[in-house]
Description:
The chain is an alpha/beta fold. It has helices at 48-56, 86-93, 101-104, 111-120, 129-142, 148-152, 161-173, 191-208, 219-225, 243-248, 253-260, 299-303; strands at residues 4-17, 20-33, 37-41, 64-73, 76-77, 94-97, 179-183, 211-215, 228-233, 236-242, 309-310, 316-317. Strand 9 (228-233) and strand 10 (236-242) form a beta hairpin.
Amino acid sequence: xxxxxxxxxxxxxxxxxxxxxxxxxxxxxxxxxxxxxxxxxxxxxxxxxxxxxxxxxxxxxxxxxxxxxxxxxxxxxxxxxxxxxxxxxxxxxxxxxxxxxxxxxxxxxxxxxxxxxxxxxxxxxxxxxxxxxxxxxxxxxxxxxxxxxxxxxxxxxxxxxxxxxxxxxxxxxxxxxxxxxxxxxxxxxxxxxxxxxxxxxxxxxxxxxxxxxxxxxxxxxxxxxxxxxxxxxxxxxxxxxxxxxxxxxxxxxxxxxxxxxxxxxxxxxxxxxxxxxxxxxxxxxxxxxxxxxxxxxxxxxxxxxxxxxxxxxxxxxxxxxxxx
Length: 324
């Protein structure tokens, strides 16, 4: 990996609810290098979006509570930065594309108002009215929006799902952010529009040299789109490797289960799944959180949480099977 732009160290995040405290993130470690495209995969509810919202400092506190950890970004710990100062970090350094463009856009303001506000309040941008409008039109052209001058006067409800997602991509990239977090940006789109949006996003990221974190359930997208992959399970990172190496030699039992769950188009039988379900975060299992579902469970798995073991210089796995 190149020099880390973002490095998360031993991050613990929970949520206070009526029944107690949900221990969601349990010592997450994660890093992204400059210009690197990293995939983050795992089941729904494993903590992927919670991790990235913690990076963005947009988790609602309370009920969320950051119990421990560090988020290093360009030499600063974002958890120790004053909230008023993080607007500059988010505006100039980190941006995020959310999975639901309908919820991400405010329905009572025009596209132009929302896009120009992003430009206006981003640190270092020219704030004169004509230049802001010209920059907004240019951003819409970059994402291949037809008739951008007209689009500026439209409301989100007047646009299709694919067009709204392109608006969100434009808003994320218009600030010149170094790190882009894409949280399942094609979930609400049909298959053909998904492909268009992914190709557009890939082209723009490649041209601008952004570091990118791509959160998705689609292993096909990860295989095609990323350089390196982290696999997450129940608030823990369980495996990290270059994309090609992970797909050719998945080591963690959970990663192997995810690979087997991919539908086959070659007539080799039905896809398999991972038995069981993600644990209750109120009372998570002791030791390795995956041990109740693991086909290779050992006594030590129930007693101790496995650290990352180095299988190679670039491949790490959190499993006692690879302790030696």
